[in-house]
Fold:
Amino acid sequence: MMDLNSFSRRRFITGATAFAAFGPSLSHAAPAGDRINIAFIGYGKRAYRVMAEALRQKDVQVVAVCEIEGTRLAKAKEVVEKSYAADVKSGSYKGCKTYTDYRELLQRDDLDAVVIMTPDHMHVHPAIDAARKKLDIYCEKPLTHNIAEGRLLVDEVNKNKIIFQTGSQQRSEFGSKFRTAVERIWAGRIGDIKTIRIGVGASPKPCDLPAQEKPDNVNWDLWLGPAPQRAYHEILCPKGLHKHYPAFRHYEEYAGGGLADMGAHHFDIAQWAMEMDHSGPVSVEPPATGKTGLKFTYASGIEMFHGGPDDCTFEGTEGTIRVGRGMLKSDKKEILTTPLGENDRRAHPSNNHLRNWLDCVRSRKQPICTAEIGHRTASVCHLANIGYKLRKKLTWDPTKEKFLNASDANALTTRKARDGWDYS
Structure:
């Protein structure tokens, strides 16, 4: 039996009796009082996969879903209830509640945790509100829209002592390729790291989409959240179910472009390998023109470039490691094939990012990609975008999280939220 006091919520005081109000007991699952009650906030392409994984966990109960677009909201409910219906004798299950406004969802008193799958610019608001409710959180990447809101989120997570996992799942999955690369780097197999090259996309651009008529089943005000007021466009919020990642990622009002989208994965591996999970670079030097070539320099002297032949390329004094989701290579065979020594440092052996979070919800230990880690990786992406926008060399203090003698750059570390969406 689990330690009931380890959970952040108080619903376990009533155990199975409290759960009975929300649906029948499931044959495949842990006893009702032992399950982690979670809700999904946002249901798009990435959420399809994460929800499917959550529904496979025997100690989890998805009790609610929240989505601002009506077709997707209905589908999310259908997916949950169809999955659970297969596990009850009647073949029917109606225990998943739906919400359009995440703030209403967070008023429930039976939740233990939430999974946040909203667009990038709407990660921090529901996360801060959930943290203040002392709910554990799994939140997609890139974790933040800007550097200042990231620090606000980390402070709330720490203050409320919740378990927070950033969805940078390369630390856990993809056949352990990234973990293997990082462990070899830590073991000194390539000598001292000199240069890192990260092959990801470009910075975002201002949104210039024309106005479209808003569908009746879309709560556009909630989709916008803190972003500037503008008219609906289906490029930003697709109609109905879709099999693509929406292009809001290309616009600076809502995201950090391809640079932050995949950069939240690949710069994350670089930060991990350099043991910079709680810090960052000390200078940002963009090229005079072009969409790649920006250089970060760290206090150690390591130089990291935006742009490269692979997802992640690590060049050291004794060799090179190239790693991506589909490959792991080195210029010297023994760098990867020689087993780690007894005293060589190992990374956390997580092979399932969601499961790692759930295990930590139970144990109250920290997961593999905390809010601080997610914030620091997102900050690298934001720093790059600021560099490209200003086109000048900048000096960054990773402890104070401020640029030195650059008020124009510091102004870009935050933004004024739309009326009614401040962070107080």
Observations:
- The first strand starts at residue 36 and ends at 41.
